[in-house]
Design goal:
- With 175 residues, the chain is mostly helical.
- The protein has one domain.
- 73% of the residues lie in helices and 0% in strands.
- Helix 3 packs antiparallel against helix 4.
- The longest helix has 36 residues, at 74-109.
- The two termini are 12 Å apart.
- The mean pLDDT is 88.
C-alpha cells in the first residue's frame, strides 16, 4: 500500500514542481523577451500545459483514492478528495473560463495590450482577469500542497495491512 501511495505522492509532487517552475518561467519570459506580446504567448502556452496537467493529475489521484481506502482514516481521505477537487476545478476554471475571457479581450483590443490605455475598460477588465488567474492558480497550488502533506503523512492501519509480502500488488486492488 505504501508503494502505491508513494506513486500518488510523486505525481502530485511533479505537478507542484511544475507549478513552482512556471512562476520562474513567467517572470523570466517578461524580463528576457523583447516584446511583451511574445512573453504573454509563452506564458499562456505554458499555463495551458500546467492547467491540463493539473486536471489530469487531480482526476487520476481522485480515481486512485479508492484503492486501499479501507486502510486509511476516512476523514483524511475525504479531505484529500475535496482538495483534489479544488485542484481540478481551479485548473479547469483557469483554462476554460479565465483564459478564454482573456483571449477574447485581447482580440477585442485589436492591438498590443501595452498600447491600450491603463484606464481603458478592456485593459481594466484584462488586468482584473489576470489577477483572478493568479489567485485561481495559487488556490490550486495551495490545495495540492496540503494534499501532498496529507498523503505523505498517511498512516495505514497496521491491523488491516499485512506485512508478509510488501511486493504482492494483488492486495492493492481489493476493496
Amino acid at each position: 500500500m505504501r508503494f502505491f501511495s508513494n506513486i500518488r505522492l510523486l505525481l502530485l509532487a511533479i505537478w507542484l514542481g511544475g507549478a513552482v517552475f512556471f512562476i520562474g518561467v513567467a517572470q523570466t519570459a517578461f524580463m528576457v523577451l523583447p516584446q511583451r506580446e511574445s512573453a504573454g504567448a509563452v506564458v499562456g502556452a505554458n499555463l495551458a500545459i500546467l492547467n491540463y496537467a493539473g486536471i489530469g493529475v487531480a482526476v487520476l489521484l481522485l480515481l486512485s483514492s479508492v484503492v486501499g481506502s479501507a486502510l486509511v482514516s476516512k476523514l483524511w481521505l475525504w479531505v484529500e478528495r475535496f482538495l483534489l477537487l479544488i485542484v481540478a476545478a481551479a485548473c479547469a476554471v483557469g483554462q476554460f473560463v479565465i483564459a478564454t475571457w482573456l483571449a477574447a479581450l485581447r482580440s477585442q483590443m485589436g492591438r498590443s495590450i501595452d498600447e491600450v490605455a491603463a484606464d481603458d475598460p478592456l485593459r481594466v477588465q484584462f488586468n482584473t482577469l489576470h489577477e483572478y488567474s493568479v489567485w485561481v492558480m495559487m488556490a490550486a497550488m495551495a490545495a495540492a500542497l496540503i494534499t501532498f502533506f496529507i498523503i505523505a503523512n498517511r498512516k495505514f492501519d497496521a491491523a488491516k495491512e499485512t506485512k508478509a509480502d510488501i511486493y504482492d500488488f494483488s492486495k492493492e486492488f481489493k476493496a
